[in-house]
Design a protein that fits this description.
About 6% of the residues have low confidence. The protein contains eight helices and 30 strands. Helix 5 packs antiparallel against helix 7 and helix 6 packs antiparallel against helix 7. The chain has four domains: 109 residues, Sandwich (Immunoglobulin-like); 134 residues; 127 residues, Immunoglobulin-like (Sandwich), CATH 2.60.40; 112 residues, Four Helix Bundle (Hemerythrin (Met), subunit A). The radius of gyration is 41 Å and the shape is elongated. It is of the alpha+beta class. This is BatD family protein. Pfam families: BatD. InterPro entries: BatD (IPR025738).
């Protein structure tokens, strides 16, 4: 009996220590890495899970050398109570895509739990040649990646300088998956290109072919580019985050496919453009950078009129090409025709083939003398990239007949060599009438100044001016003490000064935009009463909105400031500088009226 009791006590003790050891073991903290497979093809994906049995902080994954992370980290947490024992598990998961064949080591990951750092063990993976898809169901990311493609279609990869090329971004989607949403992660900046985007207002689904397979696609973005620099230029990629619904092998209650949703990133990839220089052979002296296919004309609203009446002369270029990126030729007119600054007009629309329409300068001409005045022919030259040759167009000579008005020797009927600033002396017989034979002198005593009304007015005038001088002096003191008002006046003068300086530097990109930016800043300094150091585009926008400035004027002003910043690293044509100068004058005028 005693022996059996001893055996029972020994067995109970053994069970107690076993339970205690198990309890201690269950309380131990673990942190480990697990691979979905240790060998895979280069076209397969690898899943790696970092799992811990207690929550921690500062998780630091390895660098995954030899792999691209296509998804992750995603977190999952599991917690349960079984027979009074709590079970906890937290996992960080990654989906990896191999970048090369060979053997790779996934290094240690670390995490801090209860103030102590734990490390996972390094794991080795072997990447083999591409394999056929395994029999098990592919991951949602793999399916989406194989059935979704973002493509940038470039119309021409070897354009000439200033020749239009178009870039159309298309998202191809296989019929087996559905796209529920997307957003742009990174938009290209098009450095060294003059760009014009054609907004896509509606995404129309179309059918097409990609790599020999049928796809649906939508056009996401269209832009026309005019290279401003020769040599190899890079078009940055467009990147999107797309939410994709991928079918699984499961079925719902009614037999329909069950879809799972996943987010993937797609990119159009970088595209390189080799821009050719314009040929030097045959380049006309008056070539101003026009590239395309154009027509040229000079027309007038009338050819017969009287002196002091006006007519309109239009110098117009129409067709397809870089219409905003060259200068129109100027009229050469006789001195007897008074000419005002031309008014620039443009009617341009942009398609995937580039800009098309017309640009023109409208001159107002007023003749001073009677006669016939020829408007000489002028030439316009452009480069045609289709024929790879220069072409020169000449306008027809126009004869302006001034029927009635003063005579002038320079009003020669047809010879343009008589364009002179000298005017003829017309003899009328009355040229000596300014000499008076009867001066009409009067005696000084007959109309003496002393004792007259004017004498007493001039005598009392200093006394009357004393109160006026006192009022004027107080006004000057008030103005001198108004420091804020003086600052505003000074800033207004500076704004006018710098805007004038910007006009003088048209054609010199750096100097022009520095002067324009100073003018805009000093104008704001005057109107908003803030120091230049406080400027930021967001604050400017908020302050102008508080002043009840129209939204259109605010956006125009902000866009001018952005152009000044952009001009530091992007090419700007002289035409665009002129547009920005005119826009600055207009915006300041509009804001003045509203303020």
């Amino acid at each position: 009996m005693n022996r059996s009791v001893k055996h029972f006590v020994a067995l109970a003790t053994l069970l107690f220590f076993a339970f205690l050891a198990k309890a201690q073991d269950s309380g131990a903290i673990t942190f480990e890495a697990k691979l979905s497979k240790e060998q895979l093809g280069i076209n397969e994906r690898l899943r790696i899970d970092f799992t811990m049995n207690k929550d921690g902080d500062n998780f630091n994954p390895p660098n995954f050398e030899g792999f691209n992370v296509v998804m992750g980290p995603s977190q999952s947490i599991s917690s349960s109570w079984i027979n009074g024992v709590r079970s906890y598990s937290k996992t960080y998961s990654y989906i990896l895509m191999p970048t090369a064949r060979g053997k790779f080591t996934i290094n240690q990951a670390t995490i801090v739990i209860d103030g102590k750092t734990y490390k996972s063990l390094p794991l080795e993976v072997e990447i083999t040649a591409a394999v056929e898809r395994p029999g098990e169901e592919a991951s949602a990311d793999a399916v989406a990646d194989d059935n979704l493609h973002l493509v940038a279609e470039v119309s021409k990869t070897g354009p000439y300088l200033n020749e239009a090329i178009s870039v159309v971004y298309k998202l191809f989607v296989s019929p087996s998956i559905n796209v529920s949403n997307f957003r742009a992660l990174d938009n290209p900046k098009y450095n060294n290109f003059w760009s014009q985007e054609m907004p896509v207002t509606k995404y129309a689904v179309q059918n097409g072919v990609y790599e020999g397979k049928s796809y649906r696609y939508v056009i996401l973005k269209r832009v026309v580019l005019y290279p401003q620099k020769t040599g190899e230029l890079e078009i940055e990629p467009l990147s999107l985050e797309v939410t994709v619904d991928v079918p699984t092998n499961k079925r719902d209650f009614f037999g329909g496919k069950v879809y799972t949703s996943t987010n993937i990133t797609v990119s159009a990839g970088r595209r390189n453009i080799m821009v050719k220089e314009l040929p030097t052979e045959g380049k006309p002296e008056n070539f101003s950078g026009a590239v395309g296919n154009f027509n040229f004309s000079v027309t007038t609203t009338k050819t017969e009129l009287n002196a002091s009446e006006s007519l309109q002369a239009k110098v117009e270029v129409s067709g397809k090409g870089n219409l905003k990126l060259f200068q129109l030729p100027e009229l050469s007119l006789p001195s007897a025709l008074e000419v005002y600054e031309p008014e620039f007009n443009e009617g341009i629309r942009t398609t995937t083939e580039g800009m098309e329409g017309s640009v023109s300068n409208n001159y107002t001409i007023v003749p001073s003398f009677k006669g016939k005045y020829p408007i000489p022919s002028i030439a316009f030259s452009y480069f045609d990239p289709e024929t790879e040759k220069y072409r020169s167009l000449n306008s027809a000579e126009i004869m302006v007949n001034v029927i009635d008005g003063p005579n002038s020797a320079s009003a020669n009927t047809s010879n343009p060599a008589t364009f002179s600033n000298q005017k003829s002396v017309v003899v009328t017989g009355d040229q000596f009438n300014f000499i008076k034979t009867k001066p009409g002198l009067k005696s000084l005593t007959a109309n003496s100044f002393f004792g007259s009304t004017y004498f007493y007015i001039w005598l009392l005038l200093p006394i009357l001016l004393i109160p006026i001088a006192i009022v004027f002096g107080k006004k000057r003191e008030a103005i001198a003490s108004d420091l804020v008002g003086n600052k505003i006046k000074k800033a207004n003068k500076l704004a006018r000064k710098y805007l004038s300086a910007a006009k003088k530097t048209l054609g010199d990109k750096d100097a022009f935009y520095i002067a324009l930016e100073k003018a805009l800043h000093n104008y704001l300094k005057a109107k908003l009463k803030i120091e230049t150091s406080e400027f930021s585009k967001d604050k400017i926008q908020a302050l102008l909105a508080k002043k009840d400035i129209e939204e259109g004027s605010i956006q125009d002003f902000i866009s001018l400031l952005k152009n000044c910043e952009l001009a530091r690293y992007s090419p700007f044509s002289e035409v665009q500088m002129q547009d920005d100068y005119n826009k600055a004058s207009e915006v300041i005028s509009q804001m003045d009226k509203q303020l």
